[in-house]
Amino acid sequence: MNDYQFEINLSSTKKQKPAFDQLVFGRNFTDHMFVMDYTEGRGWHDPRIIPYQPLQLDPSAMVFHYGQSVFEGLKAYLTEDQEVLMFRPYKNMERLNRSNNRLCIPAIDEELAVQALRQLISVDHDWVPNEEGTSLYIRPFIISTEPYLGVAASHQYQFIIIMSPVGAYYKEGINPVKIAVQSEYVRAVKGGTGNAKTGGNYASSLKAQEVAEKSGYSQVLWLDGKENKYVEEVGSMNIFFKINGEIVTPELNGSILEGVTRNSVIELIKHWEIPLSERKVSIDEIYEAHKNGQLEEAFGTGTAAVISPIGEFFWNDEKLVINNGETGEISRKLYDTLTGIQKGKLEDKFGWIVKVDEEKAVTSAI
Amino acid sequence: MNDYQFEINLSSTKKQKPAFDQLVFGRNFTDHMFVMDYTEGRGWHDPRIIPYQPLQLDPSAMVFHYGQSVFEGLKAYLTEDQEVLMFRPYKNMERLNRSNNRLCIPAIDEELAVQALRQLISVDHDWVPNEEGTSLYIRPFIISTEPYLGVAASHQYQFIIIMSPVGAYYKEGINPVKIAVQSEYVRAVKGGTGNAKTGGNYASSLKAQEVAEKSGYSQVLWLDGKENKYVEEVGSMNIFFKINGEIVTPELNGSILEGVTRNSVIELIKHWEIPLSERKVSIDEIYEAHKNGQLEEAFGTGTAAVISPIGEFFWNDEKLVINNGETGEISRKLYDTLTGIQKGKLEDKFGWIVKVDEEKAVTSAI
Ligand SMILES: Cc1ncc(COP(=O)(O)O)c(C=O)c1O
Ligand SMILES: Cc1ncc(COP(=O)(O)O)c(C=O)c1O
């Protein structure tokens, strides 16, 4: 089953684990990490699992200057039978390679990356939390490491995977968030890097986020960079609306990130035979739908929060309250279904789950 | 003159210097670096000069994931009297703070930064090369260092200055470069980060650069992200045209970087009483001007190359050759004047030069 062999160098000491019932997002890291190097000529080489430790980089390492970096985010879950399940890891590695292509970073072997995940999770198995709403957040990323000042693609990279036991991403949890529509700052534009998962997109989003937070909004709704008219994403999530019984989500247009959760939600909606359309959605349409009482639900989708219901939009000095600021029926059903599949409580009809320990899985099925 | 005192920890060994007559750009670094830390509550603190050394950063340090980083580039020159001159360093530190603002990074003390430069250059004085066309390239930069996964502004940063003795940035030197007009990929858009000097802008530019190079063009001419119509920049330089006797450059519009060289060129052109206009310039206008024989010169401006004449544009499957592919009169005059002032050979009428060692300067003037 697994032709990939990695050198494993186990940590001699183990860190103190945080209390799994009080986890915050992204602050605690497991005992080990995966690292693989790229140098021109040799390609990707030396995949290895080593103790979690600082990176040593020359101050001229290109990532510090020219932002050539990509990353992914996915989760693993502990089932009641103590099995560890990953949710659609191949999708993330595919997207990592699409991001790599846009950022001129050499492609990785996607199968190797999933096997690396598997082995790393096995090594740090006791870091997968089991409390309600918790999971092991996995962060694969690639940075350009060549020591060189000059605008060009790097000739050296590191591919690294770190892992963090996490609780809810938004302090609101599954409770609806309030969103400010952003029309001054732009997250991405066609021809830019909006559909790649690269640091610059997030750096450029901070200012609008700061402005929104100052007015008491927790996230930003991004409009397209060309016309400032079409809805693109919300915070770092994809966005869905329920308008007059139909689920509507912005079509992939080159500046929207192709979310794994978005894709899974679309498959579920289709499976449930609820009308769905992927198309351009203008902010005016949303405003009109709200005015006519047809904007029934709105929610963001992403690995971190899974489903994040939207209770209110702030646009043009007006507050548009959705579904009385409460979690809608579809949002709730999607959340329960997705987290149910992820935790192994519901049947995995779509083949989304990859078990970390396949052997054990087979044994227990006999 | 200098109220800033930095802790200085000198390197016990000195690196072997490269041959100053064979310098390439951005590959060799001096013996020391400047570092200052930021933590919330304490603000910027512990400014110090230390031996050039690797940075140690947690793999979750935010810069690796969310690209929150800014940088600057400026140069110092050795005069025939062995004095070291910096070119408009305050302008760079002002711009660094504008970039900081856009990227939600806490402002630095600009005077402190210039004094840091001064002391760092003094310490590594013998790294300033004196051969024709060489200089000491200075790279101040700020990176977000907080170990945290989550899209938010970091609460910890490092401000670092490293220096590199350099030769010509483009292998063409002052010889004209060939430029491909880019209409698929976009560098920046209004509302984005185009007018900030942050890594993401450069990362996103690599793909177009790669495409251009494959067709034998050394740089890309960027059009605006909204209409794909107006000229913005060339490679990582600002762009100027001479059309029918008038110098024309795209106006600052929020997506163009405000170059220090651009500003200096504008001051020189005004001083020479040559007609100048800062305005929108469409690629169609350039095409028409060329067809009518009125496109007399085109050149890029930037710290690295100072003036980089453009010999040819490739657009819509057509080659537009400018001034027979030769360096134009204004390009040459600007290059000679700017480098003359920078090297202390021409009078500094505009107050652009800051001497590294003011005391010595005063003494030698008596
Ligand atoms: C900008 C952006 N959009 C959307 C998403 C949602 O993607 P996914 O469902 O794969 O997590 C993410 C993050 O993960 C994101 O960063
Ligand atoms: C994108 C971009 N435009 C223009 C410039 C020119 O600016 P300056 O003249 O200050 O070097 C630079 C670089 O330095 C740049 O990176």
From TrEMBL, chains A, B:
InterPro entries in the cross-refs: Aminotrans_IV, Aminotrans_IV_CS, Aminotransferase-like, B_amino_transII, BCAT-like_C, BCAT-like_N, BCAT_family
Keyword Cell inner membrane among record annotations: no
Database matches in CDD domains: BCAT_beta_family
Signal peptide segment: none
UniProt EC number: 2.6.1.42
Record-listed N6-(pyridoxal phosphate)lysine modification sites: K197
Involved pathway(s): Amino-acid biosynthesis; L-leucine biosynthesis; L-leucine from 3-methyl-2-oxobutanoate: step 4/4; Amino-acid biosynthesis; L-isoleucine biosynthesis; L-isoleucine from 2-oxobutanoate: step 4/4; Amino-acid biosynthesis; L-valine biosynthesis; L-valine from pyruvate: step 4/4
GO biological process, one term: L-leucine biosynthetic process
Keywords assigned: Amino-acid biosynthesis, Aminotransferase, Branched-chain amino acid biosynthesis, Pyridoxal phosphate, Transferase
GO molecular function, one term: L-valine-2-oxoglutarate transaminase activity
Pfam families, sorted: Aminotran_4 (PF01063)
Similarity comment text for this entry: Belongs to the class-IV pyridoxal-phosphate-dependent aminotransferase family.
Listed NCBIfam families: ilvE_II, PRK13357.1
Protein name per UniProt: Branched-chain-amino-acid aminotransferase
